[in-house]
Specification:
The protein folds into 2 domains: 163 residues, 3-Layer(aba) Sandwich (Rossmann fold); 74 residues, no CATH class. It contains 10 helices and 12 strands. Strands 6-7-8-3-9-10 form a 6-stranded mixed beta sheet, with helices on both faces. Strands 2-1-4-5 form a 4-stranded antiparallel beta sheet, covered by helices on one side. Strands 11-12 form a two-stranded antiparallel ribbon. The longest helix has 15 residues. The chain is globular, with a radius of gyration of 19 Å. This is Heme ABC transporter ATP-binding protein.
């Protein structure tokens, strides 16, 4: 088993040291160490209840850890003023309820609220973010009338717009947190969204995202961490983490893993796909 090291991680845009979180005496994540650099996409995988969302919520300051430290560009995240943090750190949660009759364009424009860059710049950024997610045609549609997948892509355009430009941040560092962003999307839009996130990371943005589709994580991540029962079981490249023995252990089910014939990336096949008797 590729057990992750508990050594202090190297300094990056995001550095997490010995992080533990519990609620009502129940430990949700335990002693997590992690570092993510600009331009890197880190995918977090694990079964339901493994602590994936808890980890993202703690990084995003929605939950207070019992112990450990979270640093953003080598300074404690808790010391950042909320507006300064919002200019550099954007979060897409699993559920984004919105019933107001905003247009798609107005929802995306909400991402520019922490900034004072003016109407012209903000409009250009919103248009670029919507184009990146292929939702420009939804600009004048009312948000409540959109499908779940269309709403999800509009919401991602919003958080991309929030940290679109490095020059809007007080430092060059930017961090994007995404919690299950592809859940409601069809296969075509799943790949389109992941490609957009991958391209956005290349503008020197550190990305941490939870993903249920392990094969999708393997196709687009630079690194993967696997959580189980709140602990980091493995960390490494897709080929290092996505092994039959480790994934079978993490998810308590037999799997087979093959390499994609075109990309060479690992493809995870479940028991019913391989004919294995469970």
């Amino acid at each position: 088993m590729n057990k992750t090291s508990q050594n202090t991680p190297a300094k990056g845009v995001l550095t997490i040291e010995n992080l533990s979180v519990s609620i009502a005496s129940r430990t949700l994540i335990n002693n997590i160490n992690l570092a993510v650099d600009a331009g890197e996409v880190l995918c977090v995988i694990g079964p339901n209840g493994a602590g994936k969302t808890t980890l993202l919520r703690t990084i995003g300051q929605d939950l207070t850890p019992d112990s450990g430290h979270i640093s953003f560009y080598q300074q404690p995240l808790t010391r950042m003023a909320p507006r300064a943090r919002a200019r550099q750190l954007a979060v897409l949660t699993q559920h984004n309820p919105l019933t107001f009759a905003f247009t798609g364009r107005e929802v995306v424009a909400l991402g520019r609220s922490p900034h004072s860059t003016g109407v012209v710049i903000d409009d250009d950024i919103c248009q670029a973010a919507m184009a990146a997610l292929d939702v420009s045609h939804l600009a004048q549609r009312l948000y409540p009338s959109l499908s779940g997948g269309e709403q999800q892509r509009i919401q991602l355009a919003r958080v991309l717009a929030q940290i679109w430009r490095a020059e809007d941040a007080s430092t060059s560092a930017r961090l994007l947190l995404l919690d299950e962003p592809v859940t409601s999307l069809d296969i075509g839009h799943q790949h389109q969204l992941m490609q957009a996130v991958r391209a956005f990371a290349r503008t020197d943005v550190a990305v941490v995202m939870t993903v249920h589709d392990i094969t999708l994580a393997g196709a687009f991540a630079d690194r993967i961490i696997a959580l189980k029962n709140g602990e980091c079981i493995a960390e490494g490249s897709p080929h290092e983490v996505l092994t039959e023995s480790l994934i079978s252990h993490v998810f308590d089910t037999p799997v087979s893993i093959i390499n994609h014939p075109q990309t060479g990336k690992p493809v995870v096949l479940g028991a019913t796909e391989t004919g294995t008797t469970v």
